[in-house]
Each structure stands twice: as structure tokens, then as C-alpha cells.
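Following up on my earlier message about zinc ion. Here are the inputs again, as you asked, copied directly from the submission form:
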Amino acid sequence: MRDESGAVIRLEDYRPTDYLIDRAELDIRLDRHATRILAKLHLRANPAGRPAVPLVLDGDELRLVSLAIDDVPAAPEAFEASPERLVIHAPPAQPFTLTIETEIDPTANTKLMGLYRSGSAYCTQCEAEGFRRITYFLDRPDVLSVFTTRIEADRDEAPVLLGNGNPVAAGDAGGGRHFAIWHDPFPKPCYLFAIVGGRLDKVADRFTTMSGRAVEVAVYVEPGKAEDATYALDALKRSMAWDERVFGREYDLDVFNVVAVSDFNMGAMENKGLNIFNDKYVLASAETATDADYANIEAIIAHEYFHNWTGNRITCRDWFQLCLKEGLTVFRDQEFSADERSRAVKRIADVRVLRAQQFAEDSGPLAHPVRPRQYREINNFYTATVYEKGAEVIRMLRTLIGDDAFRRGMDLYFDRYDGTAATIEEFVACFAEASGRDLGHFAQWYEQAGTPTVNARGHYDAEAKTYRLALTQVTPPTPGQPEKAPQVIPIRLGLVGGSGTEIALSPAATAGHMPGVFVLDGPSATLTFTNVPEKPVPSLLRGFSAPVRLEIDLEEDELLVLFRYDSDAFNQWQSAQTVATRAILRAVGAGTPPAPDRRMADALRHFLSMRAGSDPAFAAQVLALPTEADIAREIGHDVDPDAVHRARQLVKVELGAALAAELAELYSQLSSREPYVPDAAGAGRRALRNACLDLFAAGRPAEGEELAMRQFRDADNMTDRFAALGVLSHLPGAARETALAEFSERFRNNALVLDKWFSLQAMIPEPETLERLRGLMRHPAFSMGNPNRVRSLIGSFAMANLTQFNRADGAGYDFVADMVLALDARNPQVAARLLTAFRTWKMLEPRRRAEAEKALRRVAGTPGLSPDVADISGRSLS
Ligand code: 0A1
Ligand code: ZN
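Thanks, got it. Here's what our run produced:
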């Protein structure tokens, strides 16, 4: 295993390589157990490196078959080969070639990194350091090479052979074998290399780019599933058009291929011209996929496509710069989805994810900066902080300098760094130049971890007609960063009058910034608004203009003013969430139902009467209470998950009962007999209808169960069927078990649908769930070898079942720890990710904290851990 030493890699130690690989010609002969790779590498000394030093190529579990230097077989004393390394002691001074033959066993590759098999197909995953499992190479992102790849395979086994770039030749190779040659003219790091071979069906189309070039676009899937890939193909074409329209970026090859495989460690991968996807993010039909699945497919197809410019044409100098491609590309895919669907609803959904994932990470032992300064295992840094907070940083940058300067900065970046491996500093400098601003302080967002808390206090002087807003910020310490400096926090704001009028902001208050944006860049600031005719309600952080926690001393009545009148939809939603959060927190404190909150129910009733018809998707977001994890984060320390669950349930029951009549009425109004279309409008209506069902069932369980059962059985689409099953899953009894059994029977041949069924059961907040889980692990459809199965069953339990993972007796922790250890030998990446479920253990009450720590120590103390799991367990305990 590589990196067994657990060495720390540091940003400050970066230096260029001593050699460059300008061209790589690969000949890959696919075989189930003995795939041979003949790699001819064209090397030369790097002018920026040290002269005349040995050449050290990376490997991982490789077996060298033969080696030639400048086409002459290498003498044994000229090199040293191990599974982890190939050292050429004295490489030629002039440009030279290495011809390296390796042999690997793709069937035995359970880590799913490098070349492996998914079902009967061959595929690759090279990011971050998987290429070294195929051949010896300078496996780092600042070595850019032009790749030509010949792939050879049994024609029967693998009639389809795909590589990066454009197809240049194909033909018979004798003995039942055939070959294809692919050439990618764009120099790229080897983490973007990919091949696929297998028996696959495809859907294909043509896309004409803005300059009139024809591109053949295709999605490849398992035989018989082509129909289910049409939505993905459509999303791809829309992504291509959007990137031209919004960023002026055109596609650059003759073909663009997407391949769906069922065994994949992550969501998808942006290999040049040959994206490889977890099939969960490609396959969809009305019967098998929910509206949320469709939205995910659209977003991830877009994300991988957008990487062609942000990631591939311009890549990262080193893995510390990961957010350079990931944060930026997430920002781009978020904008795409916002344009394709509802911008406000998309923003709310994104902030929910940010808070659930990134805020949780940022407040615990795994907190790290958007650009980490050190790592032991880079696979553990594909995190919510790098991705989601990375996207927030880009969003803040745009808010600070405005849309026009932002676009000029992007253009400059593309122009200046195309074809190179860039850094965050180089990226930020483009925006400083384009906007004429000093972004030095702003760039600290990349360096400083932790979620700032912004506190706001307002004071209205009726006589002087002035409103003063005092703002402060603090960022709590995070591992390795005990002292924090103030961040640059753009606060988009407005003042709302009691009857809903938007009060004009006196220009002086936000002078020097974009209209409506105040920039808090010191520990505190006071803003004074003049000519304020009445006591206003401040609406701060509109659109969630910065990834911070906001503390503000608003009365419930004031929050309800914002809920009703704020011109900013995000803050409307946020105010409703805050009111609900407070009600749940009161119930946690009291342990009994809080005094019925009429105002909240009345406000929701009024809201539904005004907005349910015109904006159902938004209304559905408003009806969804904050999650248990949201409440736990709000409490912050000594959390008792059972108390949180009970309190939230109390509030939900009460609200459901208070609004039962309206919910039932709305539910039936929204019933539609029109055929299912996975568009935003239809999805919005279904979301609201299912939110009504959920809340109604909490208030009126018996009627709710009946309604849910009827919907479950009558539904003509997975969104409605699965939502009903979700409601039933929270109502103990025979109906639930019947529905679960009917569901698994109906979809017994569809692994992706059974994943939903696994996941739902893993999230049932009852003590029997752990036993249910053990039983489900013996289900014929379950397999520890498939990451999607593991994530649906075990991952859902660990990440999304707050009460049962955190059982007071520690049995949930023990179970997950056992699973992590069992998985580690097979697939360390998936094991390490599962272990991050412990990231919030320090905020639990003492008994659970002790149990969690015990389980973590058991994992950490197990001999022979992978670097991945050793790193997560070590940091979690630090
Ligand atoms: N670059 C991909 C994420 C990714 C990272 C590592 C992988 O290895 C298993 C796979 C995918 C993205 O951002 O979509
Ligand atoms: Zn990405």
C-alpha cells in the first residue's frame, strides 16, 4: 500500500518536477485478470527543475514486465522497480523515451481506482492518484501530456472501446480481438485519463457549437437501458448551450461521451471527452427516479461538462488547489440549475446542503480551509468545504465586484491560463485586475477555516429617523488555527417596513460597495441609515450572501414580517425556518409540547393561501421543518439527539394538527392526473403536495396513513410513490411493512430503486432499526462491494439517522465502526467517507461522546489501516 508511512504533504514544499512528459502513447490490451499496458513516454528535463537527477515515477500495486530507455532494453542496474516506484538512476540528458510494460488485474481491483471492472465492463478512475495503478508516471496535476491511446479487447466481451479525445482508428486485431485508437490533442494531467471497454448501448445526438462545429454527444449505459439515459443526454446539450451563453465557453473535441457504470466511488468524473458516471446520476425514468434524482442528474451532468474549461483546459498546479476547479465548477453548476429551474428554490436547496454538510464539517475535528495547507491522503479532501464552501467563495467574489467585473475576470482567467496548471493566487489576481480591487484580504477565505458568526443589533431612533445597525464577527478556532482574523463578509441587506414596504437605503450606508451590499471586513462596524420613516425590520444576508451564521435579535413578530413581506425569497424562507427552529428549541428545553404557537400556524396558513398556487416549489421548502441535524447544530454542545427528535416531532405534530384542514385541501387541489413530466413546474407541485401529506400525517396519523397508502399504490411515478413510502416509514405498524414489501417486490430487479428502499429503512428513527439493518445486509440485492449499496444502507444510517446512529448505548457507533473496518480492506475510500459520520461527535452529551470516542479509538487502533481511514480516524480524535 502506498504512503504507508503516512507522510504529510505540505503546500509550502511544492516544487516543479525535474522531468516533463510531453507525450504518452499507451497500448492497453484488456484482459480480465492480466491486462497489459505498454506505455511509451516522451520525456525531457524540466527547465524549472533540478538538472541531472534520477527520475522517480509513481506506481501503486504495479508489476513491471519490461522497460526500455530510448527503445533499448534497460540494464538491470539502470533502474529500480517496486510496486510503488520506478526509479531511473541516470536518465539521458537529451529528450528521451521510456517504454514501460506493466501488468495489472482489473478484476481484483476492489478499490475502484485505476483500471477496474464494473459488471462486465472495464473502466477507469484516475483522480486523484489512480493513474499510477495503470502505469508508472509522474502522477501529479502539473505534468501535462498529450495522450494517444490504443485499446484492444475481445470483440465479444467489449464491442465498445472508448478513450479520451477523438477517435482516430479502429479495426480487427485478429484472434477475435479488435482495437480502437483515440487521440486527445489537449495536453492534460494523467488524472483526466480514461478508457472504457464493454458491451454498452448508447443514445446519441449532435450538438452544434456557437462557432458552428458539429459534436457527436452520446451517453453509454448497460444494454437495455438506453431509454433511461435520454434525460441525461438532454441535460448535457442544455449544459453545452448554457456554457456558451453565460461564460462564452465552447466545446473543443469532435465527440463528447458519457458512460454510466454501477460501481463508482463518487458521483462522476470529468475525464477529458469521456466522463464516467455513477449510473445513479444518469439513469432515470418516471417509474424509477424521483424529481430530486432528475435534478441531481441535471446538476452533475452539468458539473462534469463544465469541468471541461474549469478543471481540464485549466487544471490545478497541485492538489492543494483542488477548490480552483471544484469550488468554481460547483458555482457554475449551481448557476446553471438556477437558470434552468427556480433561482430562489435552488439557492435554498444549496444552502440546506451547505449547512448540513459544510457547517457540520467546519465545526468539528475535520475542519480545514477551502485550500488546505497539508494532507496525508488527498482522497479525504474531496469535501463539502472544498466543493460547497469553495463555491460560496466564488459567489461572494461575484457579489463583491459585481456581475460585469466577475465576467471580465473569468474571461481573463480563461485567456491567460488556458493550457496550464494554475493556482488560487493566479485565479484571484484575474479578478483583482478586472475589478481594480485589492482582493488580498478577501483571499483569506481560502486560508482560514471555520464558520464566522455575524452578530447584528439594531436600534431605531424615532426622533432622528435613523436606524443604526451594529455588526460584529467572530470565527471560532479550528484544528491548527487557534487564532482567527476577521473575514471579508459581503452582507446583502434591506430594511423592511412594518407593512412590508422596502425602505430606501441611504446611499452612505453602503458607500463604496455594490448597491445593497455592506462589506464587513473588520471585527465590528456600525451602519447608520438616515431618513428611515418607521422602525424597520432588517433583512440581512439576503440570498445567503456569505457562508456565515447570523445572530440577530429579532422578535417573532419581526421575523413574521420578513416571512410575509421580504422582497428576498431566501430571507422569507429563512425567517420561517428561524421561527420553527425557535419553537423546536423551546420544546427541547421544556421537554413538553410548547404552548401552541398560533402565530406561526396563522402565518403559514396565510402564506399557503397566497403563495401555494403561484410558487409551489417555494411553498414546499417553507413547509419543510429544519432537520434534526439543523437543530443539533443550533444547540451546538451536549446534544441529546433523542431530545431533539422528540421536540421536533412535537412541533411537527402540533403544526400538522393546526393546519390539517388546509393541508388536506391543498393536497387534493394539487392532485394531478396529467402524465408525469420531470420539469421544474411539475416537480414543484409534487413537492408541495408531498410536503402537505407529510405534515398532515404528523398531525392526523390515522388519516395520513390511509392517504399515504392510497398515494403509494396509485402513483404513476417514483416521486409520489416514494414520498408516500417515506411518510409511511415514519408510522410504525402493519401498513408500513406491507408497503415496504410491495415496493421491494415491484422493483426487485432495479438496484438503484432498491437503494432508495435500503436508505429509507436505515433512516427510521426507532431502536429496532439497527436489527432491521443487520437483516437487510443479508438481502440478496445488498453487497459490500458496491459503493451505492453501502452508502444507501450503512451510509444513510450513519449520516442521516441522528437518533439511531447516536444511540445512547453506543451500538450504532459500534456497528458503523465494524462496517468501516470490514470495508477498509476492500475499498478504503468508501470506508473513510463512511467514518466521517463521526465528524460531529464532540458536540454530543457526555455519555454518547464517550461511546463515540471509544468506537473511534477502536478503529484508530486497528493494525493495517489504509492511509485513508488512518487519516480520518486520527484527525477525528485530535
Ligand atoms: N472530480 C470529480 C470528483 C471525483 C473525485 C475523485 C474520484 O475518485 C474516485 C472520483 C470523482 C468531480 O468533481 O465530479
Ligand atoms: Zn468536480
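One observation from looking it over: The chain has a mean pLDDT of 97. Hope that helps, and feel free to reply on this thread.
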